[in-house]
Design brief:
The complex is a heterodimer of chains A (182) and B (235).
Chain A: H1 6-16, H2 20-42, H3 45-61, H4 73-89, H5 92-98, H6 107-117, H7 121-128, H8 132-144, H9 148-155, H10 159-181
Helix pairs in contact in A: 1-2, 2-3, 2-4, 3-4, 7-10, 8-10, 9-10
Chain B: H1 3-14, H2 20-30, H3 34-48, H4 60-70, H5 78-86, E1 90-92, H6 95-101, E2 108-110, H7 122-133, E3 139-145, E4 148-155, E5 160-165, E6 175-182, E7 188-195, E8 201-204, E9 211-218, E10 228-234
Antiparallel strand pairs in B: 1-2, 3-4, 4-5, 5-8, 6-7, 6-9, 9-10
Helix pairs in contact in B: 1-2, 1-3
Chain lengths: 182, 235
Amino acid sequence: MGAVNRHDADLATGVARGERQALAALFENYSGVVKSVAFRVLRDEALAEDVVQDTFVTFWKAPHRFDPDRGSLRTYLLTIAHRRAVDIVRSEESRSRRQLLPPDPHHFDVEDEVWTRSLGDHVRDALSQLAEGEREAIAMAYFAGLSYVEVARRLGVPEGTIKSRIRSGMRKLASTLEEVAS
Amino acid sequence: MSHEDIFELVPLYALDALDGDEQAEVEAHVGHCDECAQELSRHRAVAATFTADETAPTGVWERIVAEIESGVTVAEPTDIDSAHRRGSRSPLWMTAVAAALALVLGVVTVVQRQELAEMAGPQGIIAAAEDAAATPGAIVGDFTTESGVVGRVILTPDGEGYILPTDLEPLPSDRTYQLWVITSDEVVISAGVLGNDPGPARFTWTGEVAGFALTREVAGGVMSSAGDVVSVVET
């Protein structure tokens, strides 16, 4: 990792100095994708916007926690946002607010297609190389905010199987995307 | 868990697909294991490709500015966080809290264990706190002053903690409230910096607890309390 976007690095430094315009520039660049990941998990506009707000305020309050040697700023912000969204989706209150039943496996037949259509070609190609079970387990965990234990329960397969599918799928994706990047 | 066991869980952690003890163990391990931290970076980069860029939402920037200016959000002091990352333990006196607890603390140690920066929106935190309070074995205590209850602290046996201020006087912008855990070993540990007009926030703490203290400190939080104790809860 460690591929540092120079512009992002400058903006992160600006935020660390307390420059609000630097945060505004980051918001302009990344709030869309941050909201997108939050919405995919939460399926609620208002909650997703709360996550956007939390994500950027968190970065404003503690910019030093971003380590450019550990990945891009985009990845860092998405990591914060996804964790926030998962925290919310696992709370009972949000379930009632969303008034949606937790997604069932069949939901992902459609969801998965929408998901891959929205991605770049190289990501889509990488995903196409995964086994269906790997894609399904990764999608259920990431986009429904489910733990692997819960994914296993809903699919009716052993927890160890889901762990293996997620692990092998993520490793294949990492290798493929690294090859593309190089 | 061994390093090998944790390494195998890193891809799941990157997707936030762990919870409970497994999540906590991986989180703690990657903080000091370069190999696992590198692996986590790889998988987080993968997860970041799962979402396509979209245009910025409207109205949210204004809310962010308002929140930043209000100082309501949970803050985290750089110096404490750095100490936390190094796992250092800094000795100091915290006599006011000691007196309030009627404990002979002597030299106590303050360690930043967890910050209160994990936010999920006030309503989400309140709802989660209510659930936590109903958990069997949960510690629930009220911070009280002469004017009555000013806040509630909740800690589940799993280490999930919440602070719910109810009637705390807003402080000037150069001051902040700070939450402390007092362990049964008479160690006082900063659980987080709450800001000058705090809202509900969460923290995590595993281990025995003898009490909690709420203090007023300089903005940004401190390693060593000046001893301006608002209230103490004994458990």
